[in-house]
Each structure stands twice: as C-alpha cells, then as structure tokens.
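Q: Could you fold this chain for me?
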Amino acid sequence: MLILVCIAALLVGQLSPEVRARLEPFTTAVAEAWANLAALDHDGSVKTRLEAMRVLDQRPLIIANHEIDLSSLNEEDQAAAREAVGRLRAV
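A: Sure. Below is the predicted structure, expressed as structure tokens.
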C-alpha cells in the first residue's frame, strides 16, 4: 500500500501547486480506496472484497469526472491534470 501512495505522490508531484490542490480529492480517494482494500482480511468474504474493488474502480473516477473543476486552469495545466488522473487510474 505504501508503495502505491509513493507512486501516486511521484506522479502528481510534477504538477503545479494549483493543479495538485485541484486533484487532491481524487488522489485522496485513490489512496483511501487502496488502503481499504489492503486492510481487508484475506479470509474475508468475497462480497466484501468485490465491493472494495468496486469502490477502488469507481469512486476516484466519479470524483475526477464530476467533482473536480479544471475549467479555470490554462490548457497546459488541464492537460497535465488529465494525464495525471489517467496515470493514477492505471496504477
């Protein structure tokens, strides 16, 4: 889990402070979803693990698509933010 948080920090670390601040809800959601999945007991129910994986798959995407406003950023920062979201989604 710590490795994933470090990777996320590195992927977002190249962005301007304003872009990082805008993406903070997304990066937090990714980290929380991975932490919740990692915290599950391997002997836990399949249903619980699948629900945690669904949250990992969907919650950050919902935030990225509906809760983050990049419209006031310049085109370069918008593109960098979208690229960072794509890279973090691929982790």
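A (continued): The two ends are 11 Å apart (CA to CA).
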